[in-house]
Design goal:
7-stranded mixed sheet, about 375 residues, 2 domains, Rossmann fold, about 40% helix, elongated, about 20% strand, alpha/beta
């Protein structure tokens, strides 16, 4: 099958989907299960510009509120303007909203888009991605590799395990042999998402804690010895979901503190969750807990590192992910080659750097000032 069928063939193939797609777009545009916003480039229409010889791409993020995904939308639109590609953005109503993403995928297919960029909310969108690829669209995952990896054509993402491992090594070094009473504030506890378990399991691995099944959160021994840094004893005080949101991060930390106040290490899936955790710790009068996180945007991420709320964060580059995605689909639509994965990985690695002003021996890092020059990529 051709990667991109002719416009006439694609219209015949998609004719049966057109009415449903139009209804779907109406739903997402008015904020039901998601939102859809066309890029202000190349005269894009509200439908994303799928007609004629135009190349149209839809970026579907997990939500429209996290600064990480806002940066990703910005990167896609900038790349679209530079490449002459019409970019439509859509999102789930919140982290985990698979149905909203499915509707956005169906709308992109019905419009005749050439490709889709997506940060997956879960495996519930896999069948919709398969349908899109069967219809001739090139589908690229951003940030969150699907399971299995070949659900999409390729993934542009941070090595999330490495991101977690960096902050785990940093944490162990900062503890200098002290007992670690750890709160793990993850993304979900009701679904399995690769970005969630990779960061969590990377963090524990960086600490020198046996994670058993690296694709499963929470099956590690709840107490024992960590071996990184000078080594010491550890206890997993709690493992709570945050949905990646500040308010839920605060609730998750409050739930942890209801079990024990003796927490001195807080791992968080991202910086909004870290901000919420910091609020709960402050309310409880706990001032010396070491909070570490992942994402590394200018705000709130590096602002929180600079003021000492977060000790360190692993910086990712969502702007770069989106730009590379738009460029790849444009190249393919013009008859070019499919992008290749990074050797030894099943995705294209867009890079990661540990950011802290409290540098420790044996762990590579950059300063907050350096990170601010790079934030979001």
């Amino acid at each position: 099958m051709k990667l991109f069928p002719s416009n006439s063939a694609q219209r015949r193939l998609l004719a049966g989907l057109a009415l449903a797609g139009a209804a779907t777009l109406a739903l997402t545009a008015c904020g039901g299960s998601g939102t859809t916003t066309p890029a202000a480039s190349g005269g894009a229409s509200s439908a994303g510009g799928g007609g004629g010889d135009k190349i149209a791409v839809t970026l579907i993020t997990k939500n429209n509120t996290n600064p990480f995904f806002i940066a990703m939308q910005k990167g896609a639109k900038e790349a679209g303007a530079a490449q002459g590609v019409d970019v439509t953005t859509a999102a789930g109503a919140a982290d985990g909203d698979e149905d909203g993403q499915v509707k956005a995928i169906e709308a992109a297919v019905a419009r005749g888009d050439k490709g889709i960029l997506i940060t997956l909310n879960g495996s519930g969108v896999n069948s919709a991605i398969e349908n899109a690829r069967n219809a001739g669209l090139f589908v690229i995952a951003l940030d969150t590799p699907p399971d299995p990896a070949d659900t999409v054509d390729i993934t542009f993402a941070t090595d999330n395990f490495k991101a977690g491992e960096l902050i785990g090594k940093y944490t162990a070094a900062k503890l200098a042999g002290k007992t670690a009473n750890i709160a793990l504030l993850d993304l979900f506890n009701d679904k399995v998402v690769s970005v969630d378990y990779n960061r969590d399991q990377g963090f524990l691995t960086g600490m020198g804690i046996d994670v058993k099944d690296a694709k499963k959160n929470g099956d590690e021994d709840k107490s024992g010895k960590y071996t990184a840094g000078k080594g010491g004893s550890y206890t997993i005080a709690c493992n709570e979901p945050t949905g990646g949101a500040q308010d839920k991060g605060k609730t998750a930390m409050e739930n942890c503190l209801s079990k024990t106040k003796d927490i001195n290490v807080v791992y968080t899936i991202n910086e909004p969750a870290a901000a919420g955790a910091a609020e709960a710790l402050s309310d409880a009068g706990i001032k010396d807990a070491l909070i570490v996180s992942v994402d590394g945007g200018c705000s709130p991420g590096l602002t929180l590192v600079k003021d000492g709320t977060i000790a360190a964060t692993s910086q990712q580059y969502p702007l770069k992910m989106a730009q590379l995605g738009v460029e790849a689909i444009k190249k393919l639509a013009d008859g070019g080659e499919k992008p290749a994965v990074t050797p030894g990985l099943d995705f294209f690695d867009t890079g990661v750097a540990l950011v802290t002003d409290g540098k420790v021996a044996g762990v590579d890092s950059i300063s907050v000032a350096e990170g601010q020059k790079l934030c979001w990529g």
